[in-house]
């Protein structure tokens, strides 16, 4: 009779249900990975449609739809890439298709995740050399398609997932690195163990399969579970209920953890579970009124939706709610915090660390050392000294690896052995005992005596001159076409929305089993389709292999080799199958040990990305969490959240802003009705009328900047602190500036836009700001295009010489951050420079491109605290399809829009107008205005008057004010910034020609 079920048994059951998740009916039987047949189909199969804001007929139908849409996105880009290549096998790479040739299998790497096929490849179809360590090509998690070169996807296609890219194995960054590929079918993996078979490999540039693979697996798991949130997602339930842990007998919640009580006898601070909130709570918690309302929702509702417009303190409010929840939840049940981006997760965990909250980070890399030290990977190392239950499985895996090595090395002998041994051919019945003896009778050597010399092999004398020495295939990396792509950095190839940016899987360890062929055989010219019959006849008629005609012996050996390899594949397949079984058990044990590690660490918080939620779903589910907080929820795909609704969850908090960036769809048609992949669960619930709270007081932007957003956030108001921010040195008292121009754009080879004129102006302005005292790290340059991002980075490298240095307070200075708008949501900085980029050469065809996206516009305009400078063609935006967005912005900017950049000398109050990139060169190199300062210094060996070069003049400005010439008198403009009247200078004037300096 079995004993009682223990907690350990329950955890193991949960884990096994995830590791062994096959089965099910209908859509749950469909593989997450693409199938070879569908990749070779000319037309893709569109998933069944759905409608935004409608209620699904059932949970299964709801999950089926989400699974179908995600799978189409995972399959369709690769299918299209294969079809493009199939139509023109000799093509160079296109904007959608990456092509790798001379792909050869070099061995197998057996690790804890299974049997990985090691390959090398060439990248001759690229239009320029690739800097592989910096490239987003073929990162782990990418799905690829391979086909034998003679076939080229006509009959055969092999689907694989990149599990390792070994950049450290190459001695030149432009040499393609070895790859490990996961091929799910053991029989297929065994069948391609042939070192001389060349393949072509196709990668879809726009698709990162890892991002959807784990989510699809999670959706299948969710179909087997019940969640308290199902009623909101599929049945449209309203209103929102209380969580199961908060009964109606509790009219209020203790939030005393939000303030320090000097006297323990003071009454606890409590917030009503519903209804009006007393005013004194704002004062004691440090939260504003809208934040307190949001806090009430976050800690008292089963489902809480919090909209946080830019600068309103979403993260601050989330941390307050988290502090309260930690005081009310059991200490042994972690709270889950998650977000779309690694940086956001790390920021939240860093704040937890500063508040003394213990946490653990699943996956990802962290710049913050406190977060890095608390990654699961590092905590595993701390507990590594313990006896591991996985040892027995690791020993079995090692044994199977040795079996695979024996099989492969018998088929493909190492260099020291050169050829297959006669005895191995005899064991499988390819030659008789007498035939084997005829070769071995005169051989007195050993494997050691062969020593890489084929003539010393038993078959060496018999083959004579019928062998031709060959070596392993080498990767070629010369570009197919010499085209450096204007403004591109070597290997800078990210797409406009590369979801794989900065995503790298933990590098896997292991020593691969290599396979190579060291000799090929001479085949007689008389050989034809009947050569196999000739060989069989010779083998049947002669007991001694020496009786074979010498010119047939190479052909005979090749026949025997091929048959031997074929006979070994079945055994190799079985070994690979057993390895797969062992790796599953290893995963179960590993997750069990991880749970022990987490529990022993005392972690109250588990942090991971929304992709990590499903990648580690079994591990997290076994922890039986009750609360999950999702930051950036409006940027997160609905399926990522749906797939992670663990049955033990009682509270889910969605924090985001559906007016900012939305989820991205790699397949354009999936972003449109009826699929709506770019509509988040956050947005869908809000638009369906679900109750939500909105924060209303912003503490980031100067009021002049915030007013640009008033059309989209009419209730947003400024906190008093925004009016007290210092002006930016070198820009007078300006807060907003639009530099208007009509210099035309260009496009790189990936059709990404760039504008050389804007890049030059950005570089010059950046140098001016830094010369006048703004830290490089306080400046961020934003653009809507990766091509422009690259061009600006190049321009900054050419123009500016600001290496890292220590400031007076010991702060390590770095250069500016140049980012696409899509990569900067959730961040902010003192100064934001926006390069609009778009300016068509044909003025009759205005086009805003990505700039016509309202959400991107909001994100871009709302990042600065003290200064916003937009550089772009205003007329193009005003006349394009983006006029409804930018027309209002331009109206609010008004006279702050100029055809020059007005910069200021802080010492002399001089305003200088810069309208072209080369005009920056005429300023004094340290950022001054070039006016004579009244100081004396040595110039070309003689004592002369000094000119203003920025900083030093500022220190002397007060004492030298009487010496400033009257022609440089300063007046105050009506716009609130310092400007000079008749003394305003332009860089065109010879007055500032300081080239000799």
From TrEMBL:
Low complexity: compositionally biased ranges: 964-973
Annotated keywords: ATP-binding, Helicase, Hydrolase, Nucleotide-binding
Source domain of life: Eukaryota
Single GO molecular function: helicase activity
Cellular component annotations (GO), alphabetically ordered: nuclear RNA-directed RNA polymerase complex
Annotated protein name in UniProt: Helicase required for RNAi-mediated heterochromatin assembly 1
Gene Ontology BP, a term: regulatory ncRNA-mediated heterochromatin formation
Domain DNA2/NAM7 helicase-like C-terminal: 677-874
Location of the DNA2/NAM7 helicase helicase domain: 287-386, 592-663
Residue numbers spanned by region Disordered: 487-508, 964-985
Organism (species): Colletotrichum gloeosporioides (Anthracnose fungus)
Entries under PANTHER family matching the protein: DNA2/NAM7 HELICASE FAMILY, NFX1-TYPE ZINC FINGER-CONTAINING PROTEIN 1
Domain ZNFX1: 94-205
């Amino acid at each position: 009779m079995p004993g009682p079920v223990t907690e350990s048994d329950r955890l193991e059951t949960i884990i096994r249900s995830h590791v062994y998740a096959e089965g099910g009916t209908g859509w749950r039987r469909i593989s997450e990975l693409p199938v070879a047949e569908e990749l070779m189909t000319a037309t893709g199969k569109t998933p069944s449609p759905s409608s935004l804001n409608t209620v699904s007929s059932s949970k299964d139908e709801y999950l089926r739809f989400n699974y179908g849409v995600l799978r189409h996105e995972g399959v369709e880009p690769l299918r299209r890439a294969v079809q493009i290549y199939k139509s023109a096998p000799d093509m160079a790479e296109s904007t959608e298709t990456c092509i790798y040739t001379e792909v050869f299998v070099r061995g197998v790497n057996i690790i804890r995740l299974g049997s990985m096929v090691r390959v090398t490849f060439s990248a001759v179809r690229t239009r320029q050399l690739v800097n592989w360590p910096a490239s987003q090509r073929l990162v782990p998690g990418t799905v690829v398609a391979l086909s034998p070169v003679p076939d080229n996807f006509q009959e055969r296609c092999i689907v694989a997932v990149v599990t390792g890219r070994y950049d450290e194995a190459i001695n030149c960054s432009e040499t393609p690195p070895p790859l490990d590929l996961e091929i799910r079918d053991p029989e297929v993996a065994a069948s391609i163990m042939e070192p001389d078979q060349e393949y072509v490999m196709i990668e879809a540039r726009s698709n990162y399969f890892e991002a959807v693979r784990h989510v699809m697996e999670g959706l299948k798991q969710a179909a087997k579970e019940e969640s308290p949130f199902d009623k909101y997602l599929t049945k449209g339930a309203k209103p929102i209920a209380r969580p199961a842990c908060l009964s109606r007998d509790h009219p209020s919640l203790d939030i005393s953890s939000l303030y320090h009580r000097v006297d323990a006898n003071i009454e606890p601070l409590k917030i009503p579970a519903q209804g009006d909130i007393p005013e004194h709570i704002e004062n004691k918690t440090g939260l504003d009124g809208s934040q307190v309302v949001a806090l009430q929702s976050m800690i008292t509702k089963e489902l809480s939706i919090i909209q946080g417009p830019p600068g309103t303190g979403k993260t601050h409010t989330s941390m307050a709610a988290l502090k309260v929840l930690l005081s009310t939840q059991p200490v042994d049940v972690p709270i889950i915090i998650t977000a779309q981006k690694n940086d956001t997760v790390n920021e939240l965990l860093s704040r937890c660390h500063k508040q003394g909250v213990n946490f653990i980070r699943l996956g990802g890399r962290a710049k913050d050392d406190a977060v890095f030290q608390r990654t699961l990977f590092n905590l595993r190392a701390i507990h590594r000294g313990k006896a591991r239950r996985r040892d027995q499985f690791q020993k079995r895996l090692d044994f199977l690896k040795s079996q695979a090595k024996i099989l492969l090395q018998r088929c493909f002998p190492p260099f020291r052995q050169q050829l297959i041994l006669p005895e191995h051919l005899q064991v499988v019945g390819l030659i008789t005992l007498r035939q084997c003896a005829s070769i071995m009778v005169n051989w007195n050597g050993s494997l050691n005596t062969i020593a890489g010399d084929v003539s010393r092999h038993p078959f060496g004398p018999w083959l004579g001159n019928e062998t031709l020495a060959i070596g392993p295939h080498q990767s070629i990396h010369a570009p197919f076409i010499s085209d450096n792509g204007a403004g591109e950095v070597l290997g800078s190839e990210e797409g406009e929305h590369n979801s794989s940016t900065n995503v790298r899987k933990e590098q896997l360890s292991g020593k691969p089993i290599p396979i190579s062929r060291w000799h090929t055989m001479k085949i007689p010219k008389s050989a034809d389709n009947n050569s196999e019959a000739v060989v069989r006849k010779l083998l049947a008629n002669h007991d001694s292999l020496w009786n074979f005609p010498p010119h047939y012996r190479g052909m005979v050996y090749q026949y025997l080799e091929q048959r031997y390899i074929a006979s070994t594949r079945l055994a190799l397949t079985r070994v690979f199958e057993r390895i797969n079984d062992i790796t599953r058990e290893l995963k179960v044990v590993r997750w069990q040990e991880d749970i022990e590690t987490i529990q022993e660490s005392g972690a109250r918080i588990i942090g991971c990305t929304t992709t990590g939620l499903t990648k580690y779903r079994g591990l997290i589910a076994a922890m039986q969490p009750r609360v999950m907080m999702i930051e950036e929820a409006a940027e997160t795909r609905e399926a990522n959240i749906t797939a992670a609704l663990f049955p033990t969850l009682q509270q889910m908090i969605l924090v985001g802003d559906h007016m900012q960036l939305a989820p991205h769809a790699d397949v354009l048609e999936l972003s449109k009705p009826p699929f709506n992949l770019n509509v988040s669960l956050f947005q869908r619930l809000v638009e369906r009328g679900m109750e939500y709270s909105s924060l209303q007081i912003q503490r980031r932007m100067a009021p002049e900047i915030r007013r640009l957003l008033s059309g989209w956030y009419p209730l947003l108001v400024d906190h008093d602190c925004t009016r007290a921010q210092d002006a930016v040195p070198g820009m007078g008292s300006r807060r907003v500036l639009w530099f208007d121009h009509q210099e035309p754009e260009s496009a790189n080879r990936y059709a990404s836009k760039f504008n050389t004129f804007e890049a030059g102006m950005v570089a010059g302005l950046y140098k001016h700001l830094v010369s006048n005292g703004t830290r490089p790290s306080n400046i961020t340059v934003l653009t809507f295009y990766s091509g422009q991002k690259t061009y600006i980075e190049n321009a900054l490298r050419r123009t500016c010489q600001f290496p890292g240095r220590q400031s007076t307070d010991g702060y390590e200075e770095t250069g500016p951050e140049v980012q696409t708008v899509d990569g900067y949501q959730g961040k902010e900085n003192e100064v934001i420079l926006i390069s609009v980029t778009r300016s068509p050469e044909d003025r009759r065809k205005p086009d805003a491109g990505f700039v016509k996206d309202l959400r991107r516009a909001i994100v871009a305009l709302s990042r600065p605290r003290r200064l916003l400078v937009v550089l772009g063609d205003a007329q193009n935006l005003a006349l394009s399809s983006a006029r409804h967005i930018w027309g209002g912005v331009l109206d609010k900017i008004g006279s702050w829009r100029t055809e020059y950049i007005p910069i200021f000398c802080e010492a002399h109050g001089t305003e200088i107008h810069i309208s072209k990139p080369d005009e920056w060169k005429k300023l004094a190199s340290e950022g001054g205005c070039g006016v004579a300062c009244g100081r004396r210094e040595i110039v070309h060996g003689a004592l002369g008057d000094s000119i203003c070069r920025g900083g030093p003049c500022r220190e002397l400005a007060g004492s030298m004010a009487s010496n400033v010439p009257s022609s440089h008198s300063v007046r105050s403009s009506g716009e609130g910034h310092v400007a000079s009247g008749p003394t305003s200078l332009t860089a065109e004037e010879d007055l500032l020609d300081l080239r000799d300096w």
